[in-house]
Design brief:
With 128 residues, the chain is an alpha/beta fold. The protein has seven helices and five strands. The chain has one domain: Rossmann fold. The protein has a five-stranded parallel sheet, sandwiched between helices.
Length: 128
């Protein structure tokens, strides 16, 4: 079940600061086995806004790797993501769920319970 993953904020932080090797390993395996990585632009922006320049190199290398797609946050998606959120203000969560729905890939995250509340049918790959 390693076709690809959607990387949530926590997975991107894990990759940027190498807190564990789990996120890096999963991303590498997905790409090695011909799958892909989807990074919601909202999650990437959130991580870049809090990470020092020295750790941003890891993220830049990731987003420029073949097989990795940064999913933009465009006007055409706003209504769908707003519907997912149903009053919540967590744009990164809504965008990650939207990406998971559209790719049919699990979300790599440490907040699986929270994201599942937006859509019980999405798959979660929990961070250790």
């Amino acid at each position: 079940m390693l076709p690809g993953r959607v990387l949530d904020v926590s997975a991107l932080i894990d990759i940027a600061v190498a807190k564990t090797e789990y996120s890096r390993s999963i991303a590498a395996m997905c790409l090695f086995r011909g799958g892909g990585i989807c990074i919601p632009a909202t999650s990437l922006a959130a991580v870049l806004s809090i990470s020092p320049i020295s750790t941003q190199v890891e993220l830049f290398e990731l987003v420029t790797t073949p097989g990795v797609v940064v999913d933009d946050f465009t006007y055409g998606k706003v209504g769908d993501i707003a519907e997912i959120l149903d009053g919540s203000r967590d744009i990164t969560a809504g965008h990650a769920v939207w990406c998971a729905r559209n790719t049919k890939w699990p979300i790599l995250t440490d907040r699986g319970g929270e994201l599942s509340q937006y859509d019980q049918h999405i798959a979660i790959d929990p961070l250790p």
